[in-house]
Amino acid sequence: MEGKAPIMRRSALAAIAAIGSASLFLTGCSKADDSKNDNGTKSAGADAATKGVVNASDKKGGTLTYELSDVPDSFDPGNTYYAYMYNLSRLWARPLMTFQPGAGEKGNTLVPDLAAGKGVPSEGGKVWTYKLRPGMTYEDGTPITSKDVKYAVERSNFARDVLSLGPNYFQQFMAGGDKYKGPYKDKSGKGLSSIETPDDTTIVFHLKQAFQEFDYLVASPQTAPVPQAKDTGVDYVKKIVSSGSYKFESYEEGKQAVLVRNDKWDAKTDPLRKQLPDKIVVKLKVNAETIDKDVLAGNAIDLGGTGVQAATQAQALTDASKKANTDNTYGGRLVYMAINTTVKPFDKVECRKAVQYAIDKVSVQTAEGGPIRGDIATTVLPPDIPGYEKSDVYASAGNKGDAAKAKEQLKACGKDKITTNISARSDRPQEIDAATAIINSLKSVGITANLKQYPSGKYFTDYAGVPKFTKKENIGLEMMQWGADWPSGYGFLQQILNGSAIGESGNTNLSQYDNKDVNALLAKAIGTQDMAERNSIYTQIDKKTMDDAVLVPLTYFKVLLARPTTYTNLVSTAAFSGQYDYLNIGVASK
């Protein structure tokens, strides 16, 4: 899923480099562990939330505030693809499965949510059956049924002209999924025949091929139930019917959402949620500097999991008391630049390889905030995703690029100069700084790339994720960040490399890579029962993709989170890109 990039203030590269260098020295500082918070209590210590739950408590009451510098793609659980919305949406939308709250890799553990147990596979993994927990209701007291889950999957995957923002795994893998036109066009009312609901508590998925990781797939918010009678298509976001522990009291588009306790939620039907705060406020379009101040003051959580800005980062790393309330963790994400294989001359592999060799990755890492913000990347799969194998196809001395090899590849491509455009998100200064560093590297070998900036909220729906737009605007290079939809090679690779994932809008395969061998390997992997064999296939896909030079790995993303001292149950989880698990955060004091 697309991870929200860390936001930092624009600044001169030299200043950022100083911060990066400082972080190398300060990471090993142990004094932070003995520091006290402003309220006099002892801090849990730096990186404590990456090892366990900080300030564990069942205390109820208070108002919990989240702040975001932009707007999310959507609060609609069937129409979102940002990691932080997958995380937050569990408060009002219960999927069939979800991830157990836990530190780091422990957070990757799948547990039943709406379902009473894990899926029961049959026919070698082509059929999956789930039973729902009994007694669950919506916020209006009406029962939740398996038919509502079926409908939720249909609307989120088979009405791409209406709801295009989420992934389309079910459309790709359900038997007959390529023919079904979706619930808004289905006049019969029968829905997709390969999803059966023999009774109100049973749902059966019939796939066109074996899918050994299907439990991960149903952990997406797309399986959170939606009552068909209450669905209003793209406007459903204005009146979402809650199946979780909180419901919407109000929603002001582009401004804020306010959640309150769902009084019809029954803890007996839900062993995961604690329903601690009285109210949860989600503020949108908050200045990034303001978010840092509010987080440090204990008045908010950075919803995007973006980490602190450059100036705050410098303060946190040089002040032991501040550093004691930070968590620096891998985010299970790759920061990269997609090379658009449909925009000439990048339809030729030699021109793509010229870009690979030209880029000084150290300058990009520096622009992103130094080593504390990520290790230099050379593969598609990050080190914390199964299938990763260390490799560097386009190695250069000190990772600073190889101009001579870049020019050789340009010549092999029949070019001595290239003019193109590079896209980045206008509200992400760090991404813009990284793109600027890339532009400088490319210029030295004869490739002129002009920066085009677009807002995050519409980056995939209107700009970089629209193939017709990128071709028309000559956008050959696109800044991107990606985290696994679930913690496996398939969960990471499918939506950015498979040709079948390319869509007219909301597309995340920004390279528009459609290679029959890679497509076949992905299909083979997901049907392979043996995990070791499956992981070896993911390694093959990684190597093939790098040989084809369709994306440039820049950094294995790390985030520096400030941990508010007034909130409880804070734990950084790998399941949601290193963010704090938003399911059970409470309020200690104000």
TrEMBL record:
Residues 109-501 form the Solute-binding protein family domain. GO terms for molecular function: peptide transmembrane transporter activity. InterPro entries: Peptide/Ni-bd, SBP_5, SBP_5_dom. This is ABC transporter substrate-binding protein. Keywords: Signal. PANTHER family: ABC TRANSPORTER SUBSTRATE-BINDING PROTEIN, PERIPLASMIC BINDING COMPONENT OF ABC TRANSPORTER. PROSITE patterns: PROKAR_LIPOPROTEIN. GO terms for cellular component: ATP-binding cassette (ABC) transporter complex; periplasmic space. Residues 1-32 form the signal peptide. One of its GO terms (biological process) is peptide transport.
